[in-house]
Specification:
Among the domains are: 76 residues, Beta Barrel (Thrombin, subunit H), CATH 2.40.10; 149 residues, YVTN repeat-like/Quinoprotein amine dehydrogenase (Methylamine Dehydrogenase, Chain H, 7 Propeller), CATH 2.130.10; 85 residues; 91 residues, Beta Barrel (Thrombin, subunit H); 82 residues, Outer membrane usher protein (Immunoglobulin-like, Sandwich). Helices cover 4% and strands 45% of the residues. The protein is mainly beta. The strands form 17 sheets. A four-stranded antiparallel beta sheet has the order 1-57-56-55, with no helix packed on it. The longest helix is centred in the first third of the chain and has 19 residues. This is PorZ N-terminal beta-propeller domain-containing protein. Keywords: Signal. InterPro entries: PorZ_N (IPR048954), Reg_prop (IPR011110), Secre_tail (IPR026444), WD40/YVTN_repeat-like_dom_sf (IPR015943). Pfam families: PorZ_N_b_propeller, Reg_prop.
Length: 760
């Protein structure tokens, strides 16, 4: 129990430390799906799926706010900026509210709505309306009052018939009354009435289903669910104009009323005269859908569902410019690959049964220090549901993307230039759909030591393919080792030091294949058949000790030495047994493991479907980190993929709600000490982090002394980088001065000396 308490305490301190120091994390979010916008006198506040950005046109700046800064990874449904209180309020579909103080950047998470004893599907926040220092929060159950001075909730108004819960879409203040557009009529009450929590104080103005209500100077306008605009005539709302589409947003700003439909934005003046009508084809093309619109000064801003935020002059004639911060095409990155200088990502997916039911039409994205490059779907030869991507380790400019429907896409110098399919390569289409149905399901890929690209081709007899360096294709039948090859799907493939290929299947566990001897071997479910906890394997990785780590839908296993492939009969994996509360436990028992990556120190980064990320020691006996949405900037506990830049040690974690990275220090080892470097150097008084010594050999010995030769630190490297906290063996901070760093290889055959200056 003591160990468990210390672990919980560690997580608390860990959470606190990361809330104080964001240097260890980086966010890589898409801002393309605009959920809502608000505005100040100089800036527009745009909320995407689970991140914000603030655009100041005059200063031409874009400030982003993500989970790394403290936002939740949940889906945002509303945003509001209070000019008076200098606060931004973010509302979520699950009822969470976050209040951001512009003065110091602090964030307050308000969970009162989440904690209400209501059905979870009734807690969505739809709209914020400020009046006299109070914000009226429209929710799917009613209205909640929030005080911007005390940052506390006040009364809750259940205004449905007989006090029932009712979905309130928007509220407006007009002539001393608060009006609410609901799914069951427009209702009003005297704003000064102290008993607004009494449903009987709310009277019905118009019946029906209403999507929005807004006041603009002397007018009160409402729109019903069929897109009919109505004007208030002091008694009720009278139909004014039928929109060609359902309205998705309405708001007033600077004596203009902005009404948004998926295809049009209508700009009315305060006399309800139409000044401007903007079609999506004027902004980009008819494939985009508008979500909201507003204005700041003489600029109109239009949010879209697919391409972010556009702006132009409010008066007609100006061209529209995309003002969205650069990021990946979408947050749900399904798979990625990382090299020393680039990250590539794809967005296609399949469900847990390998059904690419959406046939997603997304492109490919690349990230470098220069920013994001998004290759659109129009340039990828109609390759749908791209589920894996791999960088050629011998040539960073050559990349292959697997399509789980269309084949294998080749990308050279950032340009897609060929799609391998059933017509021009050794790849094959499944035949279950009939002779005329084409469905080439390519997923897992790996390069072997000779530079050949190995490819899995699901649901056919010859499921293992190879594209050799000379451009020729090879093919291997899986029928001898699989129970039903034409029903089998493959999640992962790795090639070991002996060029044996290890393949993860959904029905038959792990398949090992030696090309020289043409030998197949299988590990599957059952103690006598391989000891896997499930025959459905989703991830494989070979660590620096030549061990195969296996992630299944029901837990983790390790094959201790893949080098014994030829000499073994039945391959057998083992669980990792740890002690917890003085009881023997299986590490990650019953966890659905989606991804495993190995860092430069042979630690394992293990992603799960719903429990976040575990980082365990090389042998798995120690859980060093367990990152979740509650103690880290992870936007979701559903992990899609993990990859590590072995040069920098940065760990990229792709979730179904966005990607973040953890800036670790476990870099890949080097072959010599020629590239050793120290950073930062010098260490200035404002710096609070550690000193890193990178470019090391594995098991190198490092001694740090002051200028007089007094030893202040000593360690042995595990991987290519070590850290020094600038203390004398943890006892006290060393004083200002120059410190010598003596480095020697494990066998003493190579040495290097570096210096670092510390300024206190």
């Amino acid at each position: 129990m003591k160990e468990k308490f210390l672990y919980i305490l560690f997580l608390f301190l860990f959470q606190f430390s990361f809330s104080q120091n964001k240097l260890s994390w980086e966010g890589y979010f898409s801002f393309n799906e605009i959920k809502d916008i608000s505005e100040s006198s100089v800036s527009v506040y745009a909320a995407s799926e689970n991140a914000l950005f603030v655009k100041n046109a005059a200063a031409n700046t874009n400030k982003t706010i993500t989970t790394v800064d403290g936002l939740s990874g949940q889906t945002i449904s509303a945003v509001y900026y209070s000019e008076t209180f200098k606060k931004t309020i973010v509302g979520y579909e699950n009822g969470l509210m976050i209040v951001i103080n512009e003065t110091d950047g602090s964030m307050l998470k308000v969970v009162d709505i989440i904690n209400k004893q209501l059905a979870p599907n009734l807690k969505k926040i739809n709209h914020f309306m400020e009046h006299n220092g109070l914000v009226y929060v429209s929710c799917d159950f009613g209205i909640v009052q929030f005080n911007l001075t005390t940052l506390k909730f006040g009364d809750t108004y259940f205004i449905g018939d007989n006090g029932a819960e009712i979905s309130v879409k928007q509220t407006a203040f007009f002539n001393g009354f608060i009006y609410a557009a609901t799914s069951s009529g427009i209702r009003k009450a005297d704003i000064t009435n102290p008993n607004l929590n009494d449903f009987s104080q709310w009277s019905m103005v118009n019946s029906g289903d209403w999507s929005s209500i807004e006041n603009i100077d002397t007018e009160l306008i409402a729109i019903n669910s069929t897109g009919y605009i109505h004007r208030f005539n002091s008694n009720n709302f009278v139909a004014f104009f039928q929109l060609p589409q359902v309205a998705v947003d309405m708001r007033a700003k600077n004596h203009n009323l902005f009404i948004t439909t998926p295809g049009f934005v209508y700009v009315y003046n305060n006399q309800m005269v139409l000044n401007r009508q903007i079609a999506n084809t004027q902004v980009l093309d008819n494939t985009i859908n508008f979500t909201c619109a507003t204005a700041v000064d003489n600029l109109i801003y239009i949010g879209t569902k697919e391409k972010g935020l556009f702006s132009s002059t409010l008066t007609a004639g100006g061209t529209f410019t995309n003002t969205t911060p650069k990021g990946p095409e979408r947050n749900n990155i399904f798979s990625l690959d990382v090299s020393a200088n680039a990250l590539w990502a794809v967005y296609g997916d399949y469900d847990t049964n390998y059904n690419p039911y959406d046939l997603d039409s997304y492109g490919v994205s690349k990230y470098t220090t220069s920013g994001w490059l998004n290759i659109p779907y129009s340039e990828v030869y109609d390759a749908k549901s791209m589920t894996r991507i791999i960088i050629n380790p011998a040539n960073e400019k050559l990349v292959y993307a697997s399509s789980f429907f269309s084949g294998l896409l080749r990308i050279e110098d950032d340009v897609p230039n060929f799609l391998y399919n059933e017509k021009n390569s050794g790849l094959e289409s499944l035949t279950s759909g009939g002779p005329n149905y084409i469905d080439v399901r390519i997923n897992a890929t790996t390069f072997d030591k000779s530079g050949n690209l190995w490819v899995t081709n699901s649901r056919i007899k010859n499921g293992l393919k190879v594209l050799r360096t000379n451009g020729e294709w090879g093919s291997y039948a899986m029928t001898s080792v699989l129970d039903n090859a034409e029903e089998s799907n493959y999640a992962a493939i790795v090639s070991d030091k002996s060029n044996v290929k290890w393949i993860a299947t959904n029905r038959d566990g792990v398949i090992g294949f030696d090309e020289v001897s043409k030998t197949f071997k299988k590990m599957t479910f059952g103690s006598d058949l391989g000891n896997l906890p499930s025959a459905d394997v989703r991830s494989l990785v070979i660590d620096t000790k030549n061990q195969l780590w296996i992630g299944t839908t029901k837990g983790l296993r390790v094959l201790s030495n893949v080098g014994n492939f030829q000499n073994s009969g039945q391959l057998k994996s083992n669980a990792i047994i740890i002690m917890e509360d003085n009881l023997a436990q299986e590490l990650l028992y019953e966890q659905f493991i989606t991804s495993i990556a190995v860092d430069g120190s042979n630690n394992k980064w293990i992603g799960t479907s719903d429990s976040g990320v575990f980082m365990v020691s090389p042998n798995g006996q120690e859980t060093k980190y367990h990152f979740t949405i509650n103690n880290s900037p992870l936007p979701s506990n559903g992990i899609n993929d993990i990859k590590i830049n072995n040069v920098t040690g940065e760990v990229f974690i792709a979730t179904n709600k966005g990607m973040v990275s953890f800036k670790g220090i476990a870099t890949g080892v080097n072959e010599d000490l020629n590239n050793v470097y120290v950073y930062p150097n010098p260490v200035r008084p404002t710096y609070s982090g550690t000193v890193k010594v990178a470019g090391l050999l594995d098991k190198a010995n490092i001694k740090i002394t002051d200028i007089e030769g007094n030893l202040v630190y000593e360690t042995t490297s595990e991987g290519g980088t070590i850290e020094w906290d600038t203390t004398a063996f943890g006892r006290y901070k060393v004083s200002s001065g120059v410190y010598m760093i003596f480095i020697s290889a494990q066998d003493g055959g190579e040495t290097k000396v570096k210096k670092v200056m510390i300024i206190r």
